[in-house]
């Protein structure tokens, strides 16, 4: 298990304003984006295999073909599929597997961003630190994060702008302080509550920057989608401390 201590002087710490944090995150991310890129490719391959095994891939293809053959959107057909027990069971299991795969990769991206900031040698295995350290709490926090995101999305997206900032620092707390999921949520909430305006803007800008890749015919999203989590690291440095790894 990795151990961390606070206040290392060899890395850089951004000021507590949105522009500096975004710039800090960008400078780090442009030096590490190949790692989350490879991880993202492996992640999407794994999801495709799982979708194929569970039958979800075939189900979605059938839905698309039916929609094309009818030439229009049929809400009744989709409602029948969504209400069916096998579909809900598959989707529930698929979502859990998604969280199991993806949440540790978020922590790995944050860890690589930290090593880049300290000019330490980065190994590809660093990307998978979330599978080796505090795994259960990382997955639990990923579940909390996903549930909050889904609820906000189903309420026409607007609540996400105001709610998701409170969860912004949870993943760095899980990595650098090895706390429980609930403790990470509490710590993140306390800091964001006292700096809500800054985190409201930071969360929105980080999200928009992460999805800039959609402009490039959607292919560029593979390069930019993890920038959101690199911003979490920079915000942690600014509002908590710059941790260092102890050998």
Automatic annotation (TrEMBL):
Keywords: Membrane, Transmembrane, Transmembrane helix. The chain crosses the membrane at residues 32-60, 87-113, 134-151, 157-179, 200-228. It comes from the Bacteria. The keyword Transmembrane applies. This is Beta-carotene 15,15'-monooxygenase.
């Amino acid at each position: 298990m990795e151990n961390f201590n606070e206040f290392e002087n060899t890395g850089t710490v951004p000021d507590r304003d949105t522009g500096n944090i975004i710039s800090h995150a960008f400078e780090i991310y442009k030096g590490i984006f190949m790692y989350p890129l490879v991880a993202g490719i492996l992640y999407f391959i794994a999801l495709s295999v799982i979708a194929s095994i569970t039958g979800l891939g075939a189900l979605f293809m059938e839905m698309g073909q039916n929609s094309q053959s009818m030439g229009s959107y049929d809400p009744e057909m989709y409602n029948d599929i969504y209400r069916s027990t096998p579909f809900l069971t598959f989707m529930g299991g698929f979502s859990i597997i998604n969280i199991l795969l993806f949440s540790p990769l978020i922590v790995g991206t944050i860890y690589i961003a930290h090593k880049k900031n300290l000019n330490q040698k980065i190994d590809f295995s660093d990307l998978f630190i979330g599978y080796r350290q505090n795994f259960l709490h990382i997955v639990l926090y990923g579940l909390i994060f996903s549930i909050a995101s889904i609820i906000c999305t189903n309420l026409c997206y607007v609540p996400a702008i105001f709610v998701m900032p409170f969860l912004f620092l949870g993943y760095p707390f899980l990595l650098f302080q090895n706390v429980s999921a609930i403790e990470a949520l509490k710590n993140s909430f306390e800091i964001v509550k006292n700096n809500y305006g800054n985190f409201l803007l930071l969360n929105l800008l980080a999200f928009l920057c992460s999805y800039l890749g959609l402009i490039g015919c959607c292919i560029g999203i593979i390069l930019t989608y993890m920038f959101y989590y690199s911003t979490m690291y920079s915000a942690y440095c600014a509002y908590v401390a710059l941790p260092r790894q102890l050998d």
